[in-house]
Amino acid sequence: MKLCCTSVMLPRWTLDETFDRLAGFGYDGVELRCRYNPEDPKVEPSFWGRHLSDVSPDNIREKAGQIRAAAKRSGLRVVALAPQAQVGQDDLIRKLFEGAVAIDPDRPPMVRVGAPRHDRARPYMPQFLRARAGFADLTEVARGYGVKVLYEIHVGTVAVSCSRAIELLRDLDPAHIGAIYDVPNMIRVGLEDSRMGMETLGPYLAHCHIGNATPVVEGRDETGGMRWKWAFSDLREGVADILQIIQDFRSVGYAGYLSLEDFGPGEDADKVREQEAYLRRLIS
Asked: Where do the domains of the chain lie, and which CATH numbers do they carry?
């Protein structure tokens, strides 16, 4: 297993700083944010807002040379692109595929593409089947570019677990589509036994977002019932058993990347350095 870090959690680092600092902390790769910045160039950098690296679907081909140079200099591989893209956004996705190929035509980064949100006011199965048909079509487009699509198992979508994700991807070409085993998201809906989930995904287990979270009291509803929310936490402090998850990845022969996702408080460099050291200890 190898370690990478999503640059979505690093809004205050420039593109070159992202590569150089992650390499200095011992990472093997980067999951590169590829999203549009807000129009206001003066707004403070934030996880979901402005990023100093400013890689977007519109400029990624223009910046591909700088990205290649940074990857070569640092020794980091661009493992995947992390855009805000949903199946069905064909023009946007083609820009991402072209950007991935421009970065590395021989081994392009994987491209994350999400499923639509689940509308709880409407029947579930028609929504699920539409998403499945969309990913089936997208897999064929990805084949034409030589790119692999990543479906992120994500809270609020039509496939929030490994068991639902395999039904979404079943019989599609695993060379061109796979799933992200997303620990922080799956915690929020009830994490399946980790080894069971990994074995369920089988050849579709393509990537991992490693993070942790804790439940926090938000207040009470109108009936007096307790309401909870989830907060990102240090890997060592959340409810997910990270050691067991790492052991299960080893048991199923996973040789891909663990991509750190930590959107909690704290200094960027401290989080990246400390979490890398902890993961290395668990892997070894």
From this structure: 2-283 (3.20.20.150)
